[in-house]
UniProtKB/TrEMBL annotation:
GO molecular function annotation: oxidoreductase activity, acting on the CH-OH group of donors, NAD or NADP as acceptor
Similarity section: Belongs to the aldo/keto reductase family.
Pfam families linked to this entry: Aldo_ket_red
Source organism per UniProt: Adineta steineri
Protein name per UniProt: NADP-dependent oxidoreductase domain-containing protein
Domain NADP-dependent oxidoreductase: 27-114
Keywords: NADP, Oxidoreductase
Gene3D superfamilies linked: NADP-dependent oxidoreductase domain
Length: 116
């Protein structure tokens, strides 16, 4: 099996997700990041990975506003562990949706979970 940017993995429930994507860790919150996202999608990157704590979710939102088709992107973001409990999680999730300029994400992860 040869891997390409379009390669996907099928999950147990039959849905699939891309194997490759662009991670936005340490991507600054700027117009440069918007251009990076736009260019990556034009080059065929099917997945964008960001997180609330990266402070760059709004750059994805701006890329969508500039014409990126949201439905063509597998979008991942993360809840940081300082947001505890159901209310904190819901608040963070709603804020992420607002910043990302979307009404859904494809994968929502707990970022850096730590046991007690």
């Amino acid at each position: 099996m040869s891997l390409t940017l379009k390669s996907r993995i099928t999950l147990n429930d039959g849905h699939s997700m891309p194997i490759f994507g662009l991670g936005l860790y340490q991507a600054e919150s700027s117009s440069k990041t918007i251009q990076i996202i736009t260019d990556a999608i034009k080059l065929g990157y099917p997945l964008i990975d960001t997180a609330e704590i990266y402070k760059n979710e709004s750059q994805f939102g701006e890329a969508v506003k500039k014409g990126i088709k949201r439905e063509e992107i597998f979008l991942t973001t993360k809840l940081f562990t300082t947001q505890s409990g159901c209310e904190g999680c819901q608040k963070s999730f709603k804020n992420s949706l607002e910043q990302l300029a979307t009404d859904y994400v494809d994968l929502y992860l707990l970022h850096a979970p730590q046991g007690q």
